[in-house]
Each structure stands twice: as C-alpha cells, then as structure tokens.
Amino acid sequence: MAPKRDSADGVYAISVAAELSGLGLSSLRLYERKGLIAPSRTEGGTRRYSEDDMQRLEHISELVEAGLNLEGIKLVLALEAENAQLRAQLAKARATPAR
DNA sequence: TTTCTAACA
DNA sequence: TGTTAGTA
C-alpha cells in the first residue's frame, strides 16, 4: 500500500538533516537546546526531523546569515507564528458573513 | 546515535 | 555568542 506521509512526520536522522540544511551536527543540537526547533524523538531518544523541521531549519539558516543571533531568531520565529495565526483568524472573519 | 566539555573565532 | 572537535 501507499504509505501516507505527512510533512509533519518526514523522518530524517540528524546527520541527513545537517547535510540537507548545510549546518553542522552540533549546531542543530544547539538550536534545539536554545528552543529554536523541536524535532520529535524516537523511543531510543534519537531525533527525527520532519519535512516541516527541514523548512524551519532553512528558515533559521537564512536568519543566521542575516546576522541575527539565536535569541533574536527565536523571537522572529515566535512572532511569525503569531502573525500567521492572526492572519488565519482574519481570513476566517472576513469569510464569515456574520453581521 | 546521545550528551558533555573545551577551545576557537 | 555560536561553531567545531573530541569524548564516553
């Protein structure tokens, strides 16, 4: 059967995540430590990076190159998430003929 | 693979 | 402050 995969459960080991993102192994671990990213874990405790995580890593990579430090990036990611949520609410409100 | 530590820029 | 290398 066709195994259904979600962008939220793409499974990458940290080594391939580092390879694809162009970052170092230690850096990825540091990012998680700083709270910039939160990959899921297997029972054994190994990190599993999803497709979403990969996009997030690329995003982080861009911000790093922009000159932001990890704390700053953390704030940007939080604000972007909040902004996306607010936009979704606004779109929903506009689509509702309530009035 | 994980974590921690130390050194470097 | 963030990355890299070596370790158990």
Task: Report what the structure shows.
It comes from Sinomonas humi. It holds the Pfam family MerR_1. It is a single chain. The protein is mainly alpha-helical. The chain has one domain: Orthogonal Bundle (Multidrug-efflux Transporter Regulator, Chain: A, Domain 2). The chain is globular. Strand 1 and strand 2 form a beta hairpin. The longest helix is centred in the C-terminal third of the chain and has 26 residues. The termini are far apart. It contains 4 helices and 2 strands. Strands 1-2 form a two-stranded antiparallel ribbon. The model has no long low-confidence stretch (mean pLDDT 94). The relative contact order is 0.14. It binds a DNA duplex (9 and 8 nucleotides) through helix 2.
Give the gist of this structure.
By secondary structure, this protein is mainly alpha-helical. It has helices at residues 14-21, 25-34, 51-65, 70-95, and strands at residues 40-41, 47-48.
Lay out the secondary structure:
Layout: H1 14-21, H2 25-34, E1 40-41, E2 47-48, H3 51-65, H4 70-95
Antiparallel strand pairs: 1-2
The structure holds a DNA duplex (9 and 8 nucleotides).
Main traits of this protein?
99 residues; two-stranded antiparallel ribbon; globular; 4 helices; Multidrug-efflux Transporter Regulator, Chain: A, Domain 2; DNA-binding; 60% helix; mainly alpha; single chain
Order of helices and strands: HHEEHH
Mean pLDDT score: 94
Rg calc? 17 Å
- By secondary-structure content and strand pairing, the structural class works out as mainly alpha
**Oligomeric state of the chains present here:** single chain
Could you give the count of β-strands?
2
Q: Strands of the largest sheet, in order across it?
A: 1-2
How far is the first residue's CA from the last residue's CA? 48 Å
Strand content: under 5%
Domain HTH merR-type: 11-79
Pfam families: MerR_1 (PF13411)
InterPro entries: DNA-bd_dom_put_sf, MerR-type_HTH_dom, MerR_fam
Keywords: DNA-binding
